[in-house]
Design goal:
Blueprint: E1 27-36, H1 41-52, E2 56-65, E3 70-79, H2 81-93, E4 97-102, E5 109-120, H3 124-135, E6 139-143, E7 147-154, H4 156-166, E8 171-176, E9 180-183
Antiparallel strand pairs: 1-3, 1-4, 2-3, 5-7, 5-8, 5-9, 6-7
Organism: Shimia marina
Protein name: Acetolactate synthase small subunit
Family: Belongs to the acetolactate synthase small subunit family.
Length: 187
């Protein structure tokens, strides 16, 4: 029987080192979870996150199949690659969960969010708020002599950028729906 010799300092990998190389870098992932639309399912999914100290950046839920009584939960979360893998594995073990998709790693996806912005002001600030709203293609859905409510749909980065520009112009309140996302392509 021949013995396998490994030189000192060799970069050969052992058969016992099958764990993928994960980084410690924090990443943001969008997960799409298909679940039964029944009482308590959302609480169980959210309980998984809170019980293990995982953070949720965005959460949207809606029924997507009325006859099959299925809902889709879209969760944007952050963590190291190991944490994201744990989250996906643990979600998959919850009984009413049918599918877990990581849209961030499965390929290109479309992510959109709806936000409402209340901006108060007068004079030049009011004119500037209207000008910026036009540039961002935001709709004024309410207007008084003292304020506007703008509606904006787009990628979360667009929503964030609009909010930052509106702050010095009198932004007083923001309501966001959270991310809705679908993978691109035929599947």
């Amino acid at each position: 029987m021949a013995a396998l010799k490994i030189k000192k300092g060799s970069t050969s990998h052992s058969a016992y080192n099958l764990r993928p190389n994960f980084s410690d870098e924090i990443e943001t992932h969008t997960l799409a979870v298909l679940v039964d639309n029944e009482p308590g399912v959302l609480a169980r999914v959210i309980g998984l996150f809170s019980g293990r100290g995982y953070n949720i950046e965005s959460l949207t839920v809606a029924e997507v199949d009325h006859t099959g009584k299925l809902s889709r939960i879209t969760i944007v979360t952050t963590g190291t690659p190991q944490v994201i893998e744990q989250i996906k594995a643990q979600l998959g073990r919850i009984v009413p969960v049918h599918d877990v998709h990581d849209l961030t790693v499965e390929g290109p996806a479309v992510e959109r969010e709806l936000a409402l912005f209340k901006v108060t002001g007068s004079g030049d600030k009011r004119v500037e708020a209207l000008r910026l709203a036009d540039i961002f293609r935001a709709n004024a859905v309410d207007s008084t002599l003292e304020s506007f409510v703008f509606e904006l749909t787009g990628a979360p980065e667009k929503i964030d950028a609009f909010a930052e520009l509106m702050r010095p112009l009198g932004l007083v309140e923001v309501a966001r729906t959270g991310v809705a996302a679908l993978s691109r392509g035929a599947e």
